[in-house]
Amino acid sequence: MDGLSPAELEARKKDFEKEAIPHMKLLYNYALRMTGDQLEADDLLQDTYMRAFRFFHKFEKGTNCKAWLFRIMKNCYINKYRKNKKEPSKVDYEDVQNFYDSIRDDVIDPNDLEHKVFSNLLDDDLMGALNSLQDDYKTVVILCDLEGLSYEEIAEFLNVPIGTVRSRLHRGRKILQRKLRDYAKSRGYSVETEV
Fold first, then answer.
1. pLDDT tens-place string over residues 88-118
2. DSSP states of 131-173 as a string?
3. pTM score, two decimals?
4. Gap between the Cα atoms of 96 and 86, Å rounded
5. Backbone Cα Rg of the chain
6. 137, 175 contact by CB (below 8 A)
7. Which tens digits make up the pLDDT trace of 129-141?
8. C-alpha distances out from residue 161 to 2, 53, 66, 97, Å
9. Which domains does the chain have, with CATH numbers?
10. How far is Cα 13 from Cα 8, in angstroms, rounded to an integer?
């Protein structure tokens, strides 16, 4: 591989395991939401990590590995989309951004604490409100509030300024707040009226 000695290859492998492997679960969840299919998500994750390892020598240590991996995954997904559509010169980017239309996972580990905590929070009313958001807002809200990515990571991933991320997140949350006011009242929450 790239003319590396066994010692250099072993060093690259250790660096890769330290930098990239900790993000595997987050990337898998993202792949599953993008593809809507467990097998396709597995394939996309595998393609992403194979490509990331192959080009790990181009990764700048000290930069954001998670965002780098997300970009590789997005490119793998777009390339696969192009191949499947048999239109190599044309990709509808909105289709790629709409990966959260099927937000719920079909396969969930019943022992997953995060699932147990949040399973009752994302019911049909909440999902309907989230899915009704304009795609730009929905993507940022999901990446920040559900996936826990930082503004910087989202900006790098979407290739937009941080101010745009903040603006979309603020607007998206405000729209959700208005849409979910009656829902909150029906659940017994005290809801302030809009001024």
1. 444 444 544 444 343 334 444 555 555 444 5
2. HTS-HHHHHHHIIIIIT---HHHHHHHHTS-HHHHHHHHHHHH
3. 0.50
4. 16
5. 19
6. yes
7. 877 888 788 888 8
8. 35, 28, 18, 17
9. 1-105 (1.10.1740.10), 108-195 (1.10.10.10)
10. 9
